[in-house]
Amino acid sequence: MASDLKDMFWKRLDNVQAGLLSADSERPVPMAPQTDRDEKAIWFVTAKGSTAERAAKSGGDGRFDVADPKAGLYATIDGKLDLGSEDKLEEVWNAFAAAWFKDGKDDKDATLVKFTPHSAEVWATENSVSFLYEVAKANVTKQTASGGEHGRLAF
C-alpha cells in the first residue's frame, strides 16, 4: 500500500497550486510547488532573504503542508531545504512565479529552493462527488465514511 500511496502522492502533488512552506520554526508562507518526481524534489521560487532561502543556505529543515480538495491531497511533508541552480530556476519558472517578481526570472531577488522530502503523512481523498456520497452513505447506514487513503511515507 505504501508504494501505491507514494505514487498517488506524487501524482496529486502535481495538481496542487499552493501550500504552506515553513522553515526555522518561523511562520508558514503560501508557496506554489513545482514537483520533480524523478529527482524526488519539490521546487519553490522565492525571494532572496526569505526564510526558505536562509534555511536553504544552511541546508536546514523545512515543512510543506498541503490541503487541496481539488487535487484530493492533504499532507504534512517534512524535509530538507537546499539552494537551487540558475538553470533549474529557468526550467521551473512559470506565470505564478512571474507574478511576484517585477523583472521576471531575471529579477535580482528571484531565487530557487529545493525541498527534498524525508517523510510525510498523507491523506488522498476521492473527488468531491465521491466524498459527498460517502458522507450521505455514512449518515444513512450509521457507519463512518471512508476518507480515502491515509498513511505515513518515507522517501
From TrEMBL:
Pfam families: Pyrid_ox_like. Gene3D superfamilies: Electron Transport, Fmn-binding Protein, Chain A. SUPFAM superfamilies: FMN-binding split barrel. Residues 7-144 form the General stress protein FMN-binding split barrel domain. Coiled coil: none annotated. This is General stress protein 26.
